[in-house]
Design a protein that fits this description.
Elements (H helix, E strand, L loop, with lengths): L3 E7 L2 H14 L4 E7 L11 E7 L3 H12 L4 E7 L1
Antiparallel strand pairs: 1-3, 1-4, 2-3
Length: 82
C-alpha cells in the first residue's frame, strides 16, 4: 500500500489561507489526515505555515489538486508517495 502525502507551504497565511482552504474543501473527500503547523508565541503568530496531508486519491487527481494549490501566489505544494 502506498501512502500519498502532500506538503503545502504557505507564505503570508493571512492572504493565502482562504484560497487554500477553498481548494482543500473541494478535495476534502480525498483527505484522510490533515496537520497544520505554524509558529506561535505569546504575542505573535507566524505569517508562514505548513500543512501536511495524507490522501486517498488517484495520481491524476492529486496532480490536478497540487496544480491548483501551486497557482496561488505564496503557496508551494509538493507530493511524495512512499
Amino acid at each position: 500500500m502506498d501512502f500519498k502525502i502532500a506538503l503545502i507551504k504557505l507564505d503570508q497565511r493571512e492572504s493565502t489561507a482562504s484560497s487554500v482552504q477553498k481548494i482543500l474543501t473541494e478535495y476534502g473527500c480525498y483527505i484522510k489526515v490533515r496537520l497544520g503547523l505554524h509558529d506561535v508565541g505569546t504575542n505573535s503568530c507566524s505569517p508562514n505555515g505548513l500543512i501536511i496531508l495524507e490522501l486517498i486519491i488517484e495520481e491524476n487527481i492529486l496532480d490536478e489538486f497540487l496544480k491548483k494549490l501551486n497557482s496561488i501566489d505564496g503557496v508551494i505544494a509538493k507530493k511524495t508517495i512512499i
